[in-house]
Specification:
The chain is built from seven helices and three strands, in the order αααααββααβ. By secondary structure, it is mostly helical. A hairpin with a 5-residue loop joins strand 1 and strand 2. It is rod-shaped, with a radius of gyration of 82 Å. One of its GO terms (cellular component) is membrane.
């Protein structure tokens, strides 16, 4: 754009310069011709030579007058031409001045245009460099962004692979855990069903044993009542026999009285022994010296340990030890029983509290075997060191 605007201005400047040169040449030619005409026309008319001849003075005067007029006319014409030339020169000078002013203005305009073109060229070059730099920066930025995108893409792909791997591992782990939990749940359900079944069986068995105990207790109470009644009748009978014997003895002699008393005592001792054997020592807390000594002499420690072992087995049959929870623990139980094995009382004297609670419950449900009358006094209050199997 700047180059195109510069070329017309250059052509205009050349035309102006040529015009000025032509005007200067024209002025020189006109000046030269004017001077040449003045020298050539001196002493001639219209530039023609006049031969010297004698003429009439009047004619000469007339001719002189005519010549003067001609010279005046020529001079006036020359003045007019000179004036015209001066006017033309002045106009030409004015035109030259105007043209020079115009040339100066054109030169200033040219310089301004050149400066503007230079600035535009510099600006265009700077813009081009800036665009190139911007384009290079943009391409570098795009390349960097593309590299970052590729790196981010690779990182994301790697991360997705890792996540997929972790997800697969986690799913496999969760699946294994679910299967294990399902197995554990089924096992726990099976154990709960077994425990529920055992509990139901235990409750049914305990209920049956309780009913049996109640029945046995009622039967024992009935037997005790019958024994008490028999003893009372026997006492009444003995009192009547004693009264009859006393009455008969009063009638007999002193010797007969002594014999009767002796026989009576023997019969009474025999009856008491039979009654004690029948009741199993229920009504007598302390055996007769002779009978107790005899029974203790016939009882060994092995028989007592064997009986206590039977009692412990009876308690163990009623004791529930899930998953051997109470293994390795013990509880000291103090048990009081009746001659027929009926449980009178039980208490814990030491050991593990949780085990003792279960052992007490099991003891109250256990069917304790009937002890032999020979060692009842040794086991009616006994201590059992209960250890679950």
């Amino acid at each position: 754009m700047s180059a195109m605007s510069y070329k017309p201005n250059s052509k205009l400047s050349i035309a102006i310069i040529i015009s000025i040169i032509l005007h200067v040449i024209l002025i020189i030619i006109l000046g030269y011709r004017a001077l040449h005409d003045n020298d050539a026309n001196y002493g001639s008319v219209n530039g023609n030579s006049i031969d010297a001849i004698m003429v009439d003075p009047s004619v000469m005067t007339e001719q002189y007058q005519r010549q003067l007029k001609t010279q005046v006319s020529q001079k006036q014409a020359e003045q007019q031409r000179q004036q015209q030339i001066d006017n033309q020169a002045r106009e030409l000078q004015e035109q030259q001045l105007a043209q020079q002013q115009r040339l100066k203005e054109l030169e200033r305009e040219r310089l301004r245009v050149e400066e503007l073109q230079k600035k535009e060229a510099e600006a265009a070059e700077a813009a081009r460099v800036a665009r190139q730099k911007e384009e290079a920066d943009r391409k570098a930025k795009e390349q960097l962004e593309e590299q970052q995108r590729q790196a981010e893409k690779q990182r994301l792909e790697q991360q997705q692979v890792e996540l997929a791997k972790q997800k697969a591992e986690q799913e496999a782990k969760l699946k294994a855990e679910r299967e294990l939990l399902e197995k554990q749940r089924e096992e726990n359900q099976r154990k709960q069903e077994e425990l529920a079944k055992q509990k139901a069986e235990h409750e049914a068995k305990a209920k049956a044993e309780q009913e049996l105990l109640e029945k046995q207790r009622a039967e024992n109470e009935r037997k005790q009542a019958e024994l008490a009644k028999q003893k009372e009748e026997q006492a009444k009978k003995q009192a009547a026999e004693k009264a009859a014997a006393e009455k008969a003895a009063a009638d007999k002699a002193a010797a007969e009285k002594a014999a009767a008393e002796k026989a009576k005592k023997a019969a009474q001792a025999k009856k008491d022994k039979e009654l004690d054997n029948l009741l199993g020592g229920l009504t007598s807390g302390t055996p007769s010296p002779s009978g107790g000594a005899a029974s203790r002499k016939g009882v060994s420690d092995g028989e007592l340990d064997k009986y206590k072992s039977l009692v412990q087995n009876a308690i163990s049959n009623k004791f529930i030890n899930p998953n051997k929870l109470y293994s390795g623990r013990n509880c000291i139980l103090e048990i009081q029983i009746a001659p027929d094995g009926l449980l009178l009382s039980v208490s814990a004297k030491g050991g593990d509290d949780a085990l003792c609670r279960e052992a007490l419950a099991a003891t109250k449900q256990a069917v304790i075997p009937k002890p032999a009358s020979s060692f009842y006094n040794q086991v009616k209050t006994m201590t059992i060191d209960f250890q679950p199997k």
